[in-house]
Amino acid sequence: MLAREQGLRNFKVLSFHKLVPPALTVLLDDPEAKIDAFILPGHVSAIIGEAPYAFVAERYHVPAVITGFEPADILGALLDIVAMRRDGHPAIHNTYTRVVSANGNPVARAVMDEVFEPTDALWRGLGAIPQSGLAIREAYADFDAVRTLGVTLREVPPLPGCRCGEVLKGKLPPNRCPLFGTACTPATPVGPCMVSTEGGCAAYYKYQLEG
Questions:
Q1: How far apart are CA 142 and CA 4, in angstroms?
Q2: Which of 104, 103, 113, 105 is nearest to 1 (CA)?
Q3: What is the DSSP string of 26-83?
Q4: What residues are paired with 127 via a beta bridge?
Q5: pTM for this one?
Q6: How far apart are CA 9 and CA 133, in angstroms?
Q7: CA distance linking residue 31 with residue 53, whole number of Å
């Protein structure tokens, strides 16, 4: 918005923004995933608030907790999840109140809604998820790298032997992938779960976890 107000012509955006709720739906609709609960991302929730996650508890009867990234945050969220599972009362709890409010950030959401609109998007290891990404609206087409620079995204075929999708869905521990620790290491990553330092495979490799 500011770029348009200032009349900038040398500013372009290639949008890879993602929406969390559609991805949660894909996981919850997969009977093999067997989701017990979610720890919801605090940085996303600071913008969107609590309401977009309500369907997780209401429709799927799965508890979820919005939390931060400190060890105490994670442990507190796990304790909250255990209590909800024990009592049989799934809900969406926000334990990250020092950053996340119930309504999120209305000003930021208004800006996002003006500039972007939902679109189908590709997710690492999960493939295409309908209406899970954000594309730049026609009103801001002059700043869209896809439109103005002719950027195209090629189809990426499945990586032979890589089981990242199953790892992301909790169907397979990272170290059960046939490529883990041999062909696929942080120095020679094959799939996205090892490429990212925050990926499950990278964490298993770094901390030598068993599962």
A1: 9
A2: 113
A3: HHHH-TTT----EEEEHHHHHHH-SGGGHHHHHTT---EEEE-SSHHHHHHHHHHHHH
A4: 123
A5: 0.89
A6: 25
A7: 20
Q: Are 148 and 11 in contact (CB under 8 A)?
A: no
Rg (CA), the chain: 19
Kind of pairing between the strands at 38-41 and 116-123 = unpaired
Residues 28-80 pLDDT 10s: 999 999 999 999 999 999 999 999 999 999 999 999 999 999 999 999 999 99
Count CA atoms within 13 Å of residue 5 on its CB side.
2
Per-residue burial over 103-133, b if 16 or more Cβ lie within 10 Å, else e, is ebbeeeeeeeeebbeeeebebbbbeebeebb
Amino acid (1-letter code) at residue 188? T
Contact 80, 65 (CB under 8 A): yes
143-201 tens-digit pLDDT? 999 999 988 877 778 889 999 999 999 999 999 999 999 999 999 999 999 998 888 99
- Residue-wise pLDDT tens digits, 116-125: 999 999 998 8
Would you state the structure tokens that stand for residue 9, as one six-digit string? 């012509």
**Strands 116-123, 92-94: parallel, antiparallel or unpaired by DSSP?**
unpaired
